[in-house]
Write a structure and sequence with these properties.
single chain, two-stranded antiparallel ribbon, 4 strands
Amino acid sequence: MAVTEPRGRRLRGADVGIPPRQLDFQLPAQLPRWMYADNRTATTYLAVLSAFFPPGEEFFVRSVQRFAAGVTDPVLRARVAGFTAQEVIHGREHDRLNELLRERGFHLEVAEKAIVVALALLERLPARQRLACTAFMEHFTAVLAEETLAAEDAGKGYIHPDLNELWLWHALEELEHKSVSYEVYEKIGNRWPERLLAEPLVLATVGPALVASWVWLLATEGALVRPGDVAEGLKLMFGPGRSCAPCSPSCRCSAAATSTRLVGTPRRWSSAGGSCCSVRRARCGGSCAVPRSRPPGRLRAKVIRWIWNA
């Protein structure tokens, strides 16, 4: 059904399915240092990601806002507003998490400087190419968000509920606004060569920054001399995940079909949709997550599909 502007006011992000949620996660003061499964490798990986998010979200917003003045469609204008508000809140909440990590003794300065340098290199590109790179990174993070929500039970028992809630909230909102940067890119004229360049440009700048920051943090935290910890952490982060299987023949995955609270987040927020597991659980009343290995090359295949078919 078409979305029309309410009489007397402009459409807002909430009107087009991208509501900015003013959240205040209660990050625990007594959080264990190795907060993810008591594992150094997994915890440092999440710490590096969190350090990358605030500068990254600012880069995304700047890239889209560079062309926002030329957006005349009221629905897309509202989607851009919702996207901007959500990204700003993401940066704020990860700033709070980063401060907590620093209090726990994590040295995030290398990761923070690395992502600033990487994004500064991307800032040298023409504005159109920056937007193409933003659309690529938004696509990539949306793929990771799908994996996170499909495995939403994976964090239970391994990580504090409020931290788990923060990552699930971030993942769901990434899916809500994942196409906005690309829709703006479409408006200014989609060019396949720019899409083709986006992947190597991002991988050549943000990729080394991520790997170097993680290895440095692993070294400073003594994880590299603990092969068992590294093996377990890599399995936790990148090993076989948990995906959804139907509870019954009548139960189907339809994340946008119903309104449900994400599992583990009943107190603070709800959203139309949620992950397929939470939708199925709401319908079937049972646990729908079962261990299942990710198909080989699935992530890469989705990235390639963006370049050729987006």
